[in-house]
């Protein structure tokens, strides 16, 4: 609410924090105090209330409201203009404060590990046969079958911390378990590092904070339901940043422009039954096909029956999920160098070799990154930058 000596303003329903190029509000304007009733030519005006939806950054809309309110409530237009200008400035300050508080809350949400949790995670990452143990741990967390797909997906999700993250699209018929697999593996990623999407408007990505999506995992449950955001997503995947210039009029009618920038990199995962429609996105992603065999069906149904019968140790599943999330938290951003890259050759029959070669090298880098607790850290002689090197074992695991 906002009050002057003669008028009372109420902002109904609050304001949105996104879309800084506009300030849409629903205003209720009424005579503030009934003691002014006898000053009015029409005493009944004291009981009137004017309600109007408008954009306070739209000079034309504001001027129309001033004229309308001045006539209906019999008050001076200059008083209304001054009040609306002050309301706009206060709402701007309020919105900025709310955005800052939201950003602070997001930072606070990041879990701080205890010494014991850190030790357990680093011990897990330091012991031999990390990839096979990770595959086993994913299974113990509640993922049935899909041994190859689940470890591939987990490493791709881990790559969000790299400068060139990987992306993945799960393909399969309806009810094949695409969303289930993506959801279960993503449960092993900390909540603060992922964004789950069911539907977003076309411009929604442009209104995230500049660094809000940086090194995040973006999960799309159904690509068919996210058609509007596929273009900005492709830009985030390829260019690692998106920008949009918007114009608006301030309360004085002056046209201004602002540039909205959202920076990546991001790792994107999605599910679909229609591969060809998403070819542009597929070119940037690993494509996996779900196991739709009879044996997989039986394994899933047996798990469902055991869970329903209370024969699954759900506490153990939760403990595994917590451990794997903490492993993700202790992984540090570090450069990976592959000294064997010049000697790696793809088979000639590989489809789209340029794309596949890049995916192959980036996946090896992600495997090396995941093994960072087992790799010696080195320093670049010229820049002093710390890095780790790919081993032949990493290449073998990636293959």
How would you explain this protein's 3D organization?
The chain is α/β, with parallel strands linked by helices. 41% of the residues lie in helices and 19% in strands. The protein is built from 12 helices and 14 strands. The protein has a 5-stranded parallel beta sheet, sandwiched between helices. A hairpin with a 5-residue loop joins strand 8 and strand 9. About 2% of the residues have low confidence.
Largest sheet: 5 strands, parallel
Side by side, the strands of the main sheet go 6-7-10-5-11
Tell me the overall shape. Answer: elongated
- Succession of helices and strands: EEEEHHHHHEHEEHEEEHEHHEHEEH
Rg to the nearest angstrom? 28 Å
Put the structure in a nutshell.
The chain is of the alpha/beta class. It has helices at residues 59-73, 77-109, 115-126, 130-140, 147-158, 178-186, 230-239, 279-282, 294-308, 314-330, 353-370, 392-398, and strands at 2-3, 7-12, 24-31, 49-55, 168-171, 194-197, 216-220, 241-249, 255-263, 266-272, 286-289, 335-337, 378-379, 386-389.
